[in-house]
Amino acid sequence: MGEAITELRGTDRIIVPIKLEPHTKIRFQCGPGIPCFKLCCSELYLPLTPYDILRLRDRLKLTTDQFLVLYTEPFILPKSKLPVARLKMRDDENKTCPFVSEKGCQVYEDRPLACRYYPLGLGIFRNRDEGRNEDFYYLVKEGFCQGLDTGPEITVEEYRRSQGIPEFEEPVLEWAEIIMKKESLGPIEVPQKSLELFFMVSTNPERFRRFIFESRFLEIYEVDKETLEKIKEDDLALLQFGFKWLKTVLYAEKGVPIKKEIPQEKKIKPF
Ligand code: SF4
Ligand code: SF4
Q1: Distances (CA, A) of 115 to 7, 24, 92, 183, 195
Q2: Which of 4, 59, 102, 269 lies at a C-alpha separation of 20 to 30 Å from 51?
Q3: Using 50, 70 and 90 to split pLDDT, how confident is the model at 11?
């Protein structure tokens, strides 16, 4: 791995320009005994994935609406310009995370994907020759974090597994693809309505479910019976369906087919 960078102080932050592979070894140790404990849990721009929202909502025994109002605020992703929800920091001097306490993270088992990755960063490289995306990793070094370059060596993949990253990442792989595609397309104009639909699927499965079953959605889109049964009850299945549908809405991909004949809206007669 790259050499330790020891001259960083306080809020200094650098991205180490070294591409890490799953087998690359890093050294990082963190835990309640360390002097910088919890310093990384304030002043964050912490976007939540749709799966983060499900996990935190269930952990806190809230409805999605309640969770969104109490703990999040809308956020436009800088590169893709797509709207998501991010964790709303407390209104205190240090802008601390709403889930941090004296003892550490109160939602540790359900903490968001971004918290699990730190101090690793995930990058995606588009291999145009082979027509596929390749993941790579890098280290983020901040002046206050004393855990880097300490402790035993561990590979990037071992670190990812020790933090439960695959469990939180796999349900949102298609969602990440949608965002990356928008990034790679550059500053294309997306209709406001499509942005609102992206936000609905990305943040609120209950609203999305009502939208499917209580609007003209099923008159317009072809959805087989088995899928319909699944998405009525199962939030994870609903998310996967939602990501496919977003690909149709945003990029005209075949994700969820449109019916050949769409019934016209009935005209309401006054008598
Ligand atoms: S969710 Fe937990 S780990 Fe993440 S910033 Fe908040 S307190 Fe820290
Ligand atoms: S070692 Fe780094 S990640 Fe761990 S508590 Fe300290 S600042 Fe946070």
Answers
A1: 24, 21, 20, 23, 26
A2: 102
A3: low
